[in-house]
Structures are given as structure tokens and as C-alpha cells.
Specification:
The protein is mainly alpha-helical. The protein has one domain. Helix content is 87%, strand content 0%. The longest helix has 76 residues. The protein is rod-shaped. The protein starts with 8 loop residues before the first helix and ends with a helix.
Length: 93
């Protein structure tokens, strides 16, 4: 009497760990390399965004220094005018 093997071909022959090891040995490093590449790409994009932000801050700081220099010159001019008005008030009064 011939019976039908209901367990399937793997159960009767055993598991072949060499093939599983070979497949894992190929796919795990490839997946790890892809993960590292994706991580590096997004890290690079973050650094680029930081560099753009720092460039805009640097430009803003340069503009602030230029404005402060201009304001200092205007304050000096205004101080001269105030001194002249004070001297005129002393001379009249």
C-alpha cells in the first residue's frame, strides 16, 4: 500500500541550512548596505540644510554689523548737532 505524504517534501527531507545560510549571507549584507546608504543620504541632506541656514545667519550678522556701523555714524552726527544746539542755548541764555 502506497501512502500519500501529507507532511510535504521539506518535512521528509529535512531543512537544508546551507541554502538558508547562503541566502542570508547574500541578502543581509545587501540590505545593510542599502540601509547605510539611505541613512547617509538623509544625513547629508540634513547637513546641507544646516549649511544653508548657517549661511543665512552669517549674512544676517553681516547686515547687522553694517547697520550698527551706519547707526553709530548717524548717532555721532546727531550728537554734534545736539552739542551745537546746547552751545547756542548757553550763548543766548
Amino acid at each position: 500500500m502506497t501512502g500519500i505524504n501529507l507532511a510535504g517534501p521539506l518535512a521528509s527531507s529535512g531543512t537544508n541550512f546551507t541554502q538558508i545560510g547562503t541566502i542570508l549571507g547574500i541578502f543581509v549584507p545587501i540590505c545593510a548596505a542599502i540601509a547605510v546608504i539611505v541613512w547617509s543620504y538623509f544625513r547629508l541632506q540634513r547637513h546641507r540644510a544646516d549649511a544653508v541656514a548657517m549661511a543665512s545667519y552669517r549674512k544676517l550678522a553681516e547686515e547687522a554689523v553694517a547697520n550698527m556701523t551706519e547707526l553709530r555714524a548717524e548717532m555721532t552726527e546727531l550728537s554734534k548737532h545736539i552739542d551745537a544746539v546746547e552751545q547756542l542755548m548757553r550763548d543766548v541764555g
